[in-house]
Amino acid sequence: MLTRSFDKVEKILEKYEYKKEMLIKILLDIQHEYRHIPREVVNYIGVALGIPPAKIYGVITFYSQFSLNPKGEYTILICDGTACHMEGSMNLVKVIEEEIGIKPGEVTKDLKFSLDKVGCLGACALAPAMVINGEVYGKLTSEKVREVLRNIKERKAE
Amino acid sequence: MITTTRKRFDNAEEIIKCVEKLKAKREKKLQKKSVFVCVGTGCTAGGSRKVYAKFVEVVKNKGLDVAIEKIDDDDEPVKRTGCCGLCSLGPLVKVMPQGITYSHVTIDDVEEIVEKTLINGEPIERLLLTDPITHKKVERLEDATFFKNQTFYIMNEVGTSVFESIEDYMARGGYLSLAKAISMDKKELIEEIKASGLRGRGGGGFPTGLKWEAAYNSKGDIKYVVCNADEGDPGAFMNRTLLERDPHSVLEGMIIAAYAIGAEEGYAYIRAEYPIAVEMFNKAIESAKEYGLLGENILGTDFSLDIHVKEGAGAFVCGEETALLSSIEGKRGVPRPRPPFPAQSGLWGKPTLINNVETYANVPKILRDGVESYRKKGVQKSPGTKMFSVTGPLNLTGIIEVQFGTTLRYILENICGGTSNGRKIKAIQIGGPSGACLPEELFDLPLDYDTLKSVGAMVGSGGIVAITDDRCMVEVARFFLDFTKRESCGKCVPCREGTMQAYNILEKFTQGKATYDDLETLEYVAEIIRTTSLCGLGKTAPNPIISTLKYFKEEYIEHIEGKCPSGMCTSFKKYMISAEKCKSCSLCARSCPNGAISGERGKPYVIDQEKCVKCGLCITKCKFGAIELVG
Questions:
Q1: Is A113 within 8 Å of chain B by CB?
Q2: In a 3-state reduction of DSSP, which class is residue B118?
Q3: How far is B581 from B385, CA to CA, in rounded Å?
Q4: How confident is the model at residue A1 (pLDDT cuts 50, 70, 90)?
Q5: Is B316 on the interface with A (CB under 8 A)?
Q6: Do residues A132 and A148 make contact, with C-beta atoms less than 8 angstroms apart?
Q7: What was the pLDDT predicted at B69?
Q8: Which of A79, B64, B380, B548 is the most core-located residue (most Cβ within 10 A)?
Q9: CA distance A1 to chain B (A)
Q10: What residues 415-434 of chain B have any CB closer than 8 A to a CB of chain A?
Q11: Is B370 on the interface with A (CB under 8 A)?
Q12: Tens digits of per-residue pLDDT, B575-587?
C-alpha cells in the first residue's frame, strides 16, 4: 500500500491555524493542490481539526467546487447558465465529447482533461462561454471549441 | 505598479486634505496623454490583458514613458481600468485626454493607436464603435447612446477608474463618507440611511435602514457585518463587476455599517468562481489597512474593525442569508427557519448584519451626495438606481445602471439597441431562477420592487435575459427547474422532492409526452412548493413555472397537442435522410448509438423513427449534408 506524505496538508492546516471554521478554505486549498480531495486526507484533517470525517464528507459533497475523484490537468467548465443555455451551450458539450471523449463529470484516462457543467460563470455577455484553468473563452462556436482543445493537446505534445 | 508609500491617517482632517490633493492630481492626470485598457472579465476573455502588455511595450519602445510628463510615481502612461459595462464590444481602449474610445481592439491595432491617437490625437475611424441606435460612429464612450441613456450613480467614472488603486478611489471622493460617518452619532447615521429609503439590492428589497437598526438594537458585545457576494444566479454578474471595478466602494460601505451597528469583525462572502473579485477585495483590504481606514483605531478613534474574505465553494443556496452564515462557519450551507433573524442571532449565534454588495456600494455615495440627491432618482418607494446585467441576442449586452422605474422596453431599445438577429423579443426573464418570464405586454411596466412583485416577478439580483421568439418557454421553465432541483440543499421536503417532480413533468412536456392532467398537476405542485418551502430558494423556485403558465400557457397546450411552436424541442422533430443526397456510405449507421439507421450499398439509408433517440449524432457525422431535422 502507498503511504502518503502529509507535509503539504500540514502546511495548509498551519496556514489556517487549525481552525474548524476554516474547513472550507482548507478544503479549497487541498482541492487546488491535489485536484481532488483524497480520502486519506479527509481522515487526516478530521483528526487534526477534531471534526468527524462524516461531517467533512458532508461538506465536500455539498459544494460543487470539491470532488472526491481527481480532476484533469486541464479542467474544462462549460457554462450552462441562462444566457449560455439559450445560445446552445449543450451542443458544445457534444463537440467536446467528440473531441476528447468525455461527458460532463468525467475525466480522461490520462488525467489530462476533465469536463464539468456549471451553473453560471458570469460571462453572460460572451455567451456561450467556457473556462479552462481559469481562462475564459467566450462567444464559442463548434469550430472555436475544437480549435481551443486542439491547441491545448498540441501544447502538451511539445 | 503602485509605489506610493502610505501613511496612516490619525484623524478625519488628514484624510480630507489628502483627498483634496489626490482629486487635483487625478484631474491633471486625465488632462494629459494616457491609455486606459479595460481588464474586466468580458474584455479579458477577448484578450485585453495581451493588448495591455502590448501597449506597455510599444509605449516603452517609443520612449513615451519618459517623454510624457508624470504627475506622480504611480502615473504610468498605460493604465488598466475596471469593467466599463459594454462587455460584448471588448476589448475596450480609451485614449486620454480626448477620451477617444475603441472597441474590439487587437494587439495588431496597438502600434497604430499609439502613433495616431496617443501621439497626434487623431481618431482611427475603423476602430470606433458604431452606435446601434443612431447608426453613427461615436468617438467618445460617453457619447454612445448606450451610456447616455443610463444613470450612473455607483458606477461612476466609467473607463477611467483605476480599480487596483485606493488612491484613485480617494481621488473620486472615496473614504470621505467614512470620515463623516465616524464623526456622527450612530443613531443619527442609521436615521440617515432610513431616510434615504435604500432597499436591499440582493433581491427581496428589504429596507436597509431597518436592518441596520435591528442589528444596532440587538444586545451583545460581539457583532458581525457580512457582505453577501455569493452571486449564483445564472445570468447575473453585476456584483462581480462591482467588486472588480470598485472594491473600495463596497469595503467603505461595510466599514460604515460596522461602525453604525457596533461590529468589530466582518466577512465578505465571495464565490470561488470569481477569483479576480476575491483578489481585488483582498488587495482593497490590505491598502485600506495601510491608511488606517481598517484595523485598529480607525482614523484615530476607538473604533476597530477587521474584515476577512471567505470564499464560497459553489452552492447556489448559500446566497440565502442563513445558509451563507453556516457556510462562513465552515459547515454545509443549509438554511434554517427565521426568526430568529440574523440581526438577533446570526454568525456563531451573535447579532449579524448581512447586506448585498450593491447595497453597501450605495452607502458611501448616499452619505457623500446627501439623501435628497439620492431620493431624486428612481421612484417614491424604490429610490435610487439599480445595476442590471443584460444578456441575450441584443446588439449591445453587458452591465448597465438605470434608475428604478425605467421600463424594460427602454432598456431593450434605447440602451441595448434592440435584437441583433432581427427576431422579435417575446419574453424577458428577470431575476434568475427565482424570477419570472414576462411577456411583451408587460415591457412598459416600470422596473421597481413593488411593481415587479405585483406581476409575480422580482428584481432578484438583477439579471435580465432577452428571449426571442425562436426559443421555447417550456424549455426555459425546464432549464430553471433543472437548476433549482440540483441546487436544492435537500433539507426540506417540498423543495427537495417538489422541484424534482415539477422537473419530471416539465421534461414530459419537452419530450412530447405530456397530457392535460400533467398541466393540472404542474400547477398544483408549483403552488405546494411555493407555499410550504423553508427558505427563499424553495419559495421562489416555482416562479419560472408559475409565470410561464400565466403568460405563455398556449405554448404548454401546443406541446400537449404535439408541437413545439418555437421548434426548439427536438423531440417533436424527426431526423430524415434525403434519398437524393445520401451516398450510402454507412457512416451514420455505424455511428448511431441505438442502431436505428439501416440500409445497403447503392440504396439510400433510412432511420427507424421508433428506435431513434434524437441525439443528432448522425447529422454531425454525415459528410454530404443528407440528414435533416424536420418539424
A1: no
A2: helix
A3: 58
A4: very low
A5: yes
A6: yes
A7: 84
A8: A79
A9: 32
A10: 429, 432
A11: no
A12: 889 988 999 898 8
Average pLDDT along chain B: 92
Copy the grid coordinates of residue B71: 504627475
User: Which residues on chain A are in Cβ contact (under 8 Å) with B273?
Assistant: 118, 121-122
Question: How far apart, in Å, are the Cα atoms of B597 and each of A11, A23, B460, B573, B576?
Answer: 58, 53, 48, 16, 10
Q: What is the ipTM of this complex?
A: 0.87
Q: Is the torsion defined by CA of B48, B49, B54, B55 positive or negative? A: positive
Q: 47-106 in A: which are within 8 Å (CB) of B?
A: 55, 58-59, 62-66, 80-83, 85-87, 94, 98
pLDDT of residue A3: 58
B437-478 pLDDT, tens per residue?
999 999 999 999 999 989 888 887 788 999 999 899 999 999
Size of interface A-B (CB pairs under 8 A): 126
B315 touches chain A (CB under 8 A): yes
Q: Cell triple for residue A99?
A: 473531441
B331/A60 Cα distance (integer angstroms): 10
φ/ψ bin of B584: left (φ > 0), alpha (ψ from -120 to 50), beta (otherwise): left
Cell representation of residue B505:
413533468
Do the chains contact at B311 and A66, CB–CB below 8 Å? no
Q: What does the pLDDT look like over A33-51, one tens digit per residue?
A: 999 999 999 999 999 999 9
Measured between CA atoms, how close is A103 to chain B, in angstroms?
A: 14
Please state, in angstroms and rounded to a whole number, the distance separating the CA atoms of residues B391 and B411: 11
Nearest Cα of chain A lies from the Cα of B94 at a distance, in angstroms, of: 20
Interface of B with A in 518-557 (CB under 8 A): none
Domains along the sequence of chain A with CATH? 7-62 (no CATH), 74-157 (3.40.30.10)
Chain B residue with minimum CA distance to A80: B234
pLDDT the model gives residue B42: 83
Model pLDDT for residues B323-380, shown as the tens digit of each residue: 999 999 999 999 999 899 999 999 999 999 999 999 999 999 999 999 999 999 999 9
Contact A132/B at CB under 8 A: no
